[in-house]
Amino acid sequence: MKISPITSYNYSIKKTSSQTTSSQKLNSNNFFHNSTKPSFGSYLIDDMFYYLRGQKNGEREEFRKDQIEQIWTKTTSDVSMVSDRLGIPFRDAKEMYQEYLELGGIKANRNGNESGLNKVVGYSLEKLDLIKEVVAPIVLLLKNNDEKEDVQKYREAIPSGVVLFGPHGFGKDFLTECFYEHLQTVAKQKDVKLVTVDMDEPVNPDDEEGMIQYIRNTFENAECWDGKKHTVIFIRNLDDYLDKASDNVVTELAFEMTGAKDKGITWIAKSDKGADLPDWIFSPSRLGVAKSIRDINAREMSTVMSYFWAKFGRFDKSKHEEIMKYCKTNSVVLTPPMFAEVADLVNDKLSESDRTYANEPDYIAPVTTEEVLYGIKEYEAKKNKEAEESGKERELPKSKYTRSDEERLVGTKIGRNMALLGL
Q1: By three-state DSSP, how is residue 19 classified?
Q2: Which residue positions in the chain have pLDDT lower than 50?
Q3: 371 shares a domain with 416
Q4: pLDDT tens for residues 133-166?
């Protein structure tokens, strides 16, 4: 089993329609005409065109399969990335990788329609850490709940909370959603009693009592005491609580988050605040795992581009180094979520003869470097225009901290809290 770092952004290529005359619709020998296809005004030319395009599509599908296989080979080098980042031999990294994936991984489909963390491109070590530090201990606890002597050991390894932090625009929302889905999928595949709960009610500063009761009820109803099941609560709007809720509401949230694992609960959340999160978040009694989510490296970004085009049936002929060099030279922050929007802009420029239509396989033109650069320029122009019209300075996905600064400051806060508790 492997973590397959594959994108799953559901950006569909927009479809257009053109009208056909009643005489065209009545032509029983024309198997290609329907109301969504362009016509060249001649049945013979239309039939020849769609026949040739169908033939071309068969070649395109083979290209797509080859491309996915090549990308699979490139993306499943997570083991080598783990080896490099941990500074351990490849053999040890592979053993570690396989051990945790057997406990908390999901078998990949290898066709682009993945689930859970298999959807995520890059972040190989972060994904492995989430499986190692969160999923695997929960599965071990639930699989061994009849072995009384080990239950407490497994329970201690489970974190009370998980926070993914870092600047806005680097895919924390997507990663957190995929991780939440991963837990649900693992529960089904491993046949363990893992309950997932959405804590998604909007923050209402005018209803303090109602919010306190909502938080209290969410955690109390989620309690699991016997080690035979576990609950994961997804706090979807942690930053809103910290920014908008009253002190009493935040105090109630902090109280419920404390010692959650002793009640059979693990909470997960994401935050744009990063190292600016309040110290109380990082108390060992409330937290267990804090992960900095920032930009991915060039190798991983190249994988994002290749797989994204393959997923949508376009053969990738673009030069990734040239694209990333352009972004670096022009201070463009290229991220997977941004690239998804760029791809939409690129696909919008497909001509009628090269566009995908519903309910049928069609030829789609290869994507070129020029098209991708066009999409990036259009995206930047669009965002700059939106900022200009709103009268606000455009917010770029960046942080005042570097990754190392952010991790150091978070580590300092955790260490300080541990010292205060005498741990």
Answers
A1: coil
A2: 1-36, 358-359, 361
A3: no
A4: 899 889 888 887 766 666 677 778 889 999 999 8
Co-location of 36 and 99 in the same domain: yes
Query: Helices 90-104 and 78-86, interaxial angle, to 10°?
Result: 120
Q: Tell me the residue ranges of DSSP E strands in 166-314.
A: 194-199, 230-235, 265-271, 289-292
Residue type, 180: Y
Q: Which residue has the tokens 């009268």?
A: 391
Q: Are residues 94 and 4 in the same domain?
A: yes
Reduced to 3 states (helix: H, G, I; strand: E, B; else coil), residue 130 is helix
Distance CA 314, CA 329 (A): 27
Q: What is the CA radius of gyration of the chain?
A: 25
What is the per-residue pLDDT across 310-332, written as a single tens digit (0 to 9) for each?
777 777 889 999 999 999 999 89
Measured CA distances, 308 to 68, 164, 337, 371 (Å) = 10, 24, 11, 14
Distance CA 216, CA 210 (A): 10
Could you tell me if 158 and 259 lie in one domain? yes
Q: How far is CA 333 from the centre of its chain?
A: 18
Instruction: Residue 206: give the domain boundaries.
Output: 123-295+400-420
36 with 102, same domain? yes
Pairing of strands 265-271, 230-235: parallel
The residues, any chain, with a CB within 8 Å of residue 226's CB and separated by 6 or more, are 145, 264
pTM for the full predicted model = 0.76
The CA distance from 223 to 236, in Å, is 19
Residues 151 and 17 in one domain: no
As given in the structure block, the two tokens for residue 115 are 């689930």
